[in-house]
Every structure is written in C-alpha cells, then in structure tokens.
Amino acid sequence: MFVSLAHSQAGPCRPARLSERRPGALQQGRRCQKIQLVRTFVGEKTGAGATTEAMPEGQEREAAAAAQGAALSRLPRIPVEETICMEGFGWESHKNGHWWRHVESKIAQLKEAGITHLWLPPPSQSVSPQGYLPGQLYNLKSAYGNKEELIELNRKLLEAGIRPVADVVINHRCADHQDENGVWNRYGDDITHNGKPINWAQWAITSDDPVFHGTGNKDSGDDYAAAPDLDHHNQELRDGLVDWLNWLHYDIGFQGWRFDFVRGYAPKYCREYMERTIGSDVFYVGEDFVDLEWQDGNLGYNQDRARQKLVDFIKEAKHTTLFDFPTKGILQEAVKHTQYDRLRDRDGKAPGLIGWWPARACTFVDNHDTGSTQQHWPFPKSHVMLGYAYILTHPGVPCLFWEHHFDWGLADEINKLVSIRKVAGLRADSKLEILAAEHDMYVARCGSNVTLKLGPRFDMPPNLVPKEQDGWALAASGKDWAVWAKKEKLGQ
Ligand SMILES: [Ca+2]
Ligand SMILES: [Ca+2]
After folding, report:
1. Is the pLDDT score of 6 beyond 50?
2. Of these four, 222, 229, 431, 432, which has the most CB atoms within 10 Å of its CB?
3. What's the pLDDT at 4?
4. Cβ contacts of residue 136 below 8 Å, gap of 6+?
C-alpha cells in the first residue's frame, strides 16, 4: 500500500480569523483537509551539474538603500556546506505580537548556538497569521511585527554574524478583490515600491486552479487548494516576484530564501528566482514535504522514490538544498521501533537524501508543521537529542528548531553538539562511513574524527569502540546515543 503523508501546509489548514479579509481564501481553506498528494516518481540518480552563473539583479539598489539610510551590513559568504541553520519560530510564534523584537532579544543566545543562518517566518501581510496565505507582498505589517522592526532585527542579526533567511511563499497569493462572479482573483498593490506593479488579475492565476478562475497557463507544479496558484510561466509575474525578492534582499536585509511548498512550481523557476536575486553559492532551502512509502502502516525500508524526487528537483533548480524529509522519517521510525538497521541502505549509504546528495540535503528533527503545537509528524519526544546527535554528526546542512532551544531547555546540549561539529570540521559533504546498522545499534564515523553510536544496546563490539589509545575521547552522550571525537580536535 502506498500511503501519502497528508501534507498539511501550515496556514491554510488552520481556520483563519473571521475578522480577516478575503473570505474566498477562508472558505477554501477547509478544502485543504482533503488534499491527497500521492504521486509516482521515476528518474535517475544524479550528482551536481556544472554551474552557469547569472548576475543577480538589483545591485544598484544597494546604493540607493544606503542613501536612504537603510544600508545593512554585509557578511562574507560562507560555503553552503558549512551552514548551520535554525528555524527561528514555531507555529504559534505570531501570538507573541512582537516576534521580530522577541527574536532580537535572543541574539546573544543565537550567537552562542553557533548558527550561521536564521530562517524567519513569512514577512508579508497574510490572511492567516502564520504568514502562509500572503496577499500584499510589499506590506510587511504582519502578526510578527512591522517593517521597521524587521529591518532592525535583520541588521542586528547581521551584526552578530547571522544571516537572516526569508520564508518565501510564492506558489500562491491571496487576492484583494472579487471578480464579477464573486471569486477572489483580483490583486491590489497598495504599497508604493520600486519595480513592477503587482496589481495582478486572473491572468496571474493558473488556468487549472480548480477554484479561483485563473486564465493563465497550466500549473507547472502542484495546486495548493486553499489559495489561487500563481502562473510562474508568465514572465511579467516572475519579473514582479524578482523585484520583490530583490527588495527583501537589498532593502530589508534577507540573505537567503526558504522556498515554501516548492513542489507547487517548476524547479527551473526556483532556479531563476535565486539567480536573479542573491545568486548562487548561497544557502537556500526548499520545502517539498515528499510522500514516503508505507506498507500496512509501517514505513518502508526503501525510500528511494522519495529521495529520487528530491534529487530530480535539485538537479534542475541547481542552487538550493531541500529539507531531508526522508532522513527525518526514517530516523524517527528507527527510534520508535528500535529498528536502527533502517539507517543503512542497500549500498551501505545513509538511507535519506544525505545518502545521495548530502551537500544539497537540509536535515532537521522537527519544524513548525511536524512538531511545535501542530504535531503532524513529531520526532519521539524522549529522543529528540538522539535526533540532534545524528544530524549534527552527519553530512547535510543541519537546521535546528527554535522551540527545542528556547522552550525545551535543550540549548546547552545542542550547542555542545554544534561545537563538536565545528571543531571537528564536519561539513555537509563530509565523508560518512557506516560501521554497523543493526536493530538495536548504529555506529557511524563522519569525517574520520567523529564517531556516533545510537541505540539501546549497551555493549558495543570491541572492534567498534573508539579507544583512548587511538586518540578518541567521549565528547557527548545522552539517552541511547554517544559521540566520540579525536582528542586533538577537542583540544585535550
Ligand atoms: Ca489553488
Ligand atoms: Ca502551483
């Protein structure tokens, strides 16, 4: 049996507040419950291709922004492989009312955490307070705060050496006005800005959107039920989005993009949005909550089709990483059922996206959808640190979660693992050697100087125990996990 993970795309699945405008989107939000995203994916495994560079647009705007006093400090680019990201919010962070200011108050702790990037929630005005039903893209008055507070937050993050990443929701956009049939498919553009106006009409909406009466081309990806899907085939629409992204970069201070619902449009457009804005060699991440395969309610051991789908997208989009949903799913099933043999595929590699394309895999334990207050697909609570021990000692770009740090009291333990990763020089593309993967024990060595053991088995085979005489020292441990590092790396 092939069972879809019912992808619950943040905002629209939750009832929006009645006081909010655009009832069209509100009504359609209920349809989201019925989405079944079951697809079959085929293709070939691939590695990274050659790079062709396109110059980002909008650099001249930097000087203009400086003249307006909005200049933001710039940070040197760091290799994507050395990125350590954190999701800087949970599902209900908007309830704080001043989230931008709240994050600003935590910058010292964020710096201590050793992160290089902080992913912030969608910044634009939105039908749903979480931000995933955006309307007026240039209006940055949101449930998280206002434009001035956001610029100030980004400026302070950059001063602290942390690059803010914007959550870019561009598969769909909620309209401001109804057409003659009462359908919400006409857009306003209420905020004065440079670049193309985005007061779009039905032409900007895909013609196969089942609800919003678009007259554009057919969707280049999946439809999102709760809102009008944008026609990314349309050059004028793409130009408008590029202008907006460049404004977010040059005027507001964002240094990377997290592409929401990236399965909703073609990877070539995703590539264009990177190349025409911040450019290549920068950390980006896309969210494709890919369907995993299940048999009789059990997660299949082989998730090649899921990771193949992710690889196919990355190959065409070229510059972005994707969230490694296969790794999360497999790891948490291994923990739940004591099936650590899941953690090695038939070729002896890691079974998630990190096994095939580690430099383009963004690993995580939970996010605002899977965990937080939604709990759609949470990692076993008792073993969250085991999850961090895995992602922080393994290849891939790790993405921490705000709530684990600030609400669960795990900051010290996670910081220690981040520190071990940095001191040992582990990167997204470090070599991984899986030494054992049995039902109750997993042992792996990453980058030749870090060893991880997972699972409840107490006695490791003597040949697998990292020995002091070989230069190993226990660096960190917790429930069912232990990490050793080479002593010279720990400064011992
Ligand atoms: Ca739609
Ligand atoms: Ca779409």
Report:
1. no
2. 229
3. 34
4. 124, 125, 176, 188, 189, 190, 191
Q: Note the ligand closest to the C-alpha atom of 29.
A: 1
CA of 227 from ligand 1 middle (Å) equals 5
Q: Which ligand sits nearest to residue 220's alpha carbon?
A: 2
Give me the long-range contacts of 269-273 (CB less than 8 A, separation at least 24).
269/220, 269/232, 269/238, 270/313, 270/317, 270/320, 271/316, 271/317, 271/318, 271/319, 271/320, 272/238, 272/242, 273/168, 273/170, 273/238, 273/241, 273/242, 273/245
**Average of pLDDT values for 7-11?**
33
Examine the pLDDT at 312 and tell me if it is beyond 70. yes
- Distance CA(215)–CA(181), nearest Å, equals 14
Name the residues annotated as catalytic.
260, 287
In this predicted structure, the answer to whether residue 25 has a pLDDT above a threshold of 90 is no
From the list 185, 183, 191, 93, the residue with the least C-alpha distance to 137 is 191
CA 209 – ligand 2 centroid, Å: 8
Distance 230 CA to ligand 1 centre (A): 8
**What's the rounded Cα separation, in Å, for the pair 89 and 130?**
10
Which two three-digit tokens encode residue 28?
Answer: 């359609």
Q: What is the pLDDT of residue 64?
A: 53
How wide is the angle at C-alpha 145 spanned by C-alphas 140 and 151, nearest 5°? Answer: 65
How far is Cα of residue 23 from the mean position of the Cα atoms in its chain? 29
Give domain limits for the chain.
11-44+54-430
DSSP labels for 365-426? S--TTTSTTT-SSPPPGGGHHHHHHHHHHSSSEEEEEHHHHHTSS-HHHHHHHHHHHHHTT-
Residue 68 above 70 pLDDT?
Answer: no
Q: Please check whether residue 144 is in contact with residue 100, taking contact to mean a CB–CB distance below 8 angstroms.
A: yes
Question: Helices marked H in 169-249 — which ranges?
Answer: 235-247
Q: What 3-state class would DSSP assign to 136?
A: coil
From ligand 1's centre to the CA of 212, what distance in Å? 7
The CATH classification number of 11-44+54-430 equals: 3.20.20.80
Name every residue whose Cβ is closer than 8 Å to that of residue 377 and which is 6 or more positions away in sequence: 5, 328, 329, 369, 370
